Amino acid sequence: DADVTQTPRNRITKTGKRIMLECSQTKGHDRMYWYRQDPGLGLRLIYYSFDVKDINKGEISDGYSVSRQAQAKFSLSLESAIPNQTALYFCATSVDGVSGYTFGSGTRLTVV
Amino acid sequence: GENVEQHPSTLSVQEGDSAVIKCTYSDSASNYFPWYKQELGKRPQLIIDIRSNVGEKKDQRIAVTLNKTAKHFSLHITETQPEDSAVYFCAASVGSNYQLIWGAGTKLIIKP
């Protein structure tokens, strides 16, 4: 089935380390998003991309960077991880923004 | 900035009763309002959405109502069942690219 796959599912890393979270999709959607989820705060947008050459910051992009390697791949990097980046991270795709988002299964990141 | 307020943060109802979750948005230009359900440990999934040119939409036991004048919309679940237990998120679109601003979520507990 067409889907959105995130790797890794869980990761524990140390403060100051660089880490990359990967997302790939087989839905053929142009739009891809990275969100973080924290208890009581809902979903907050980190970065989004509408095609390979179009990358945009979301509301909480500081401390993060992204790469859109292909239509199907969108990676999120934490250049120097800090403990308050401990969260559940979701990748999502959409065909046009108003036909629903398909989320990946999430990556639970812990920074110690 | 634009925001979406969601209430209540936790809702406990008896199985078989109805549940109502309310959201208020700030951007009068918002015209797309989806609702997502996130079961424990799972990814958010779209359950229903509504456009601004419609006041109400139903899908079996769930319905969404929209009051554009008051800038609020609500999710109604009738005849609740144990499988309705989850966290529900509302969202509202902003801008011409239909970016979503998310509510903080409502944890719905169905008591047997």
Description:
- The complex is a heterodimer of chains A (112) and B (112).
- Chain A is an all-beta fold.
- Helices cover 0% and strands 58% of the residues of chain A.
- Chain A contains no helices and eleven strands.
- Chain A is globular and about 35 Å long.
- The N and C termini of chain A lie far apart (36 Å).
- Chain B is 0% helix and 58% strand.
- Chain B has no helices and eleven strands.
- In chain B, strands 2, 4, 5, 9, 10 and 11 form a six-stranded mixed sheet that branches.
- At the A-B interface, strand 5 of A face strand 4, strand 5 and strand 10 of B.
Could you list some keywords that capture this structure?
heterodimer; A: 112 residues; mainly beta; 7-stranded mixed sheet; B: 112 residues
How would you briefly describe this protein structure?
The complex is a heterodimer of chains A (112) and B (112). Chain A is mainly beta and 112 residues long. Chain A has strands spanning 4-7, 10-13, 19-25, 31-38, 42-51, 54-57, 64-70, 73-78, 87-94, 102-103, 107-111.
**Low-confidence runs of chain B (pLDDT<50, min 5 residues)?**
none
Succession of helices and strands of chain A: EEEEEEEEEEE
- Content of β-strand of chain B: over 45%
Mean of pLDDT of chain A: 95
Itemize the secondary structure elements and their pairings:
The complex is a heterodimer of chains A (112) and B (112).
Chain A: E1 4-7, E2 10-13, E3 19-25, E4 31-38, E5 42-51, E6 54-57, E7 64-70, E8 73-78, E9 87-94, E10 102-103, E11 107-111
Parallel strand pairs in A: 2-11
Antiparallel strand pairs in A: 1-3, 3-8, 4-5, 4-9, 5-6, 7-8, 9-10, 9-11
Chain B: E1 4-7, E2 10-14, E3 19-25, E4 32-38, E5 45-51, E6 56-59, E7 62-67, E8 72-77, E9 86-94, E10 99-102, E11 106-111
Parallel strand pairs in B: 2-11
Antiparallel strand pairs in B: 1-3, 3-8, 4-5, 4-9, 6-7, 7-8, 9-10, 9-11
